[in-house]
UniProtKB/TrEMBL annotation:
The keyword Isomerase applies. Keywords: Isomerase. NCBIfam families: maleylpyruvate isomerase family mycothiol-dependent enzyme (TIGR03083). GO terms for molecular function: isomerase activity. InterPro entries: DinB/YfiT-like, Maleyloyr_isom, MDMPI_metal-binding. It comes from the Bacteria. It holds the Pfam family MDMPI_N. It comes from Actinoplanes sichuanensis. Residues 5-89 form the Mycothiol-dependent maleylpyruvate isomerase metal-binding domain. The keyword Kinase does not apply. This is Maleylpyruvate isomerase family mycothiol-dependent enzyme.
Amino acid sequence: MIIDERRRTADLVESLDPEQLNSPSLCAAWTVKEVIGHLIAAVATPNSSALLLLLRSGFRIHKANARLAVMMADRPADELAALLRTHAENPFRPPIVGYPGQLTDLQVHGQDIRRPLGLPQDLRPERLRVSLDFLVGGRAVGFVPKRRPAGLRFETTDLDWAWGDGPRILGTAEAVMLALTGRHVALADLSGDGVAELKDRTSDPAGKN
């Protein structure tokens, strides 16, 4: 699944024009191209370079990741696509979040690119299920604060998947995935008596990714 998602992301990169690549993404202050840079940096950055950057960032992982993404995004788009294909089969397995975290990172950031550009979702149901299970399973460190889904029930309208007890939140699997990971734009696509509470938790600085 991860290998195929990396290759499909390479196809996406090659389909974008310069204006699209420099457009804002859903991911904080990153452009579309910087999001792509982040996805490549995870597998294409030498360990020595990553460690040096981590040192320079005061061992703040998120800050180091942001710098890596920006540095990688300086490369031409065709080179970024080539790097994704070259490293598509990289067996890197992040600690704690493991392969489900890698797959979820690719899917969420793919939507960070596609949504603001008005592109089709192009997501695979079986992969969405893996990511949804991961996001509510307690191991999604850096993806979902534990407080965010607690005491709520999530139900997807296009996939036979549900989780939790409490006020209900209904929506497509894509919208639920994005809302769980703090993408405010997805909240408008959800319904149910639990949406207001989820919105409060997503807006609360203590509950952000």
